[in-house]
Amino acid sequence: MRKFKKALIVFACICAFTLFYTCSALGVAAQPSEVYIGGMPAGFTLGLEGAQVIGVCEILTRDGAACPARDAQLSVGDMIVEFNGVLIRSAEDIGAALKNYKGGAATITVKDGKESSKKQITPALDAVTGQFKLGVLIRDSIAGIGTVTYIEKDSHRFGSLGHAVTGNEGELMPISGEGSMYRCSIVNVVKGERGKAGELKGLFINDACVATADKNCETGIYGTFSAEYDYSALSTVEIGEDASPGKASIYATVDGLSPKEYSVSIVKVDAQNGQNKNFVLKVTDKELLEETGGIVQGMSGSPIVQNGKLVGAVTHVFLNDPTRGYGIAIENMFGN
Questions:
Q1: Nearest to 146 by CA among 31, 303, 287
Q2: 123 or 140: which carries more pLDDT confidence?
Q3: Distance between CA 3 and CA 128 in Å, rounded?
Q4: What's the pLDDT tens digit per position in 184-225?
Q5: Could you give the residue range(s) of every CATH 2.40.10.120 domain in the chain?
Q6: What's the CA gap between 139 and 125, in Å, rounded?
């Protein structure tokens, strides 16, 4: 599901983020008896715990082209977290650190997934701008579209996606501080087809920040909705402890701002699966099949309701059959 401003395998993760420390393992946690049901799309912007390398480039110096990043063996996906003892949390931090750089070899600390290492790098003086540069293209935040699963009634704590936002190599993306979550309008759908996941395309409503996001872990993105949000427009639903094979519904938004109920069938239950794939779902709703072809990127987090109770959320689509996908059991999403 990739709709970020920023494979044929059996399944594909359907987070809206192109990118996807490990948080607590899946497990049953304390949970409320009733929540507001989600299904509405949300646009997330999440700050990263550093400046992530997304490319390397050459710098034109007086002596010719140079690439300090390549010489220092920096790789795409590396997270720069320190430069000569200065903490790095953003692109601006790197710019400020380089302004104070006096020449010679510098020490940078880089995280690659869970591993941290120190490298020596000698910034090059750009002959055009007169500024020292590392020869990297970086980002310090990520953004994308996903679906809210539930909002707790008392705390207004929300859960979404049902799986982590990860990087190019499948590593969990650590986020820094509080990200923002905005209302989002779905404006187009790319239908799923065998061998290629479909996609929801949406627009952030930038003046409608409705929540903060503070956690990205194995079971999704979590945060807190604003106290000023219009909760009267939401329906409540009880939490179901067990799901079983048979008829169910999902709540998803494939056009505009508001979710609709669509029929699905739970064809398999595997409560012990530790990879966010506790259910196998099959879309049976003719309208949804006509509009999307089944499950598409951006529907991650769509709540699954069976017998009037919330039992889980959609998490993945089968690439070889977009009418089928996986879901996570709802008890695995609480406690975050």
A1: 303
A2: 123
A3: 35
A4: 999 999 999 998 989 999 999 988 899 999 999 999 999 999
A5: 11-48+144-333
A6: 21
Instruction: List the end-to-end C-alpha distance of the chain, in Å, as a whole number.
Output: 23
Q: What is the mean pLDDT of the chain?
A: 87
Angstrom distance (rounded) from CA 16 to CA 243? 26
Mean pLDDT over residues 290-303, rounded? 95
Confidence bin at 118 (pLDDT 50/70/90): very high
Instruction: Say which CATH topology domain 58-134 has.
Output: Pdz3 Domain (2.30.42)
CA 197 vs. chain centroid, Å, equals 17
- For 33-59, what is each residue's pLDDT tens digit? 899 999 999 999 988 888 999 999 999
The Cα 314–Cα 296 span in angstroms is: 10
Q: What is the pTM of this model?
A: 0.81
Q: Which CATH number fits domain 11-48+144-333: 3.30.980.10, 2.30.130.60, 2.40.10.120, 1.20.1560.10?
A: 2.40.10.120
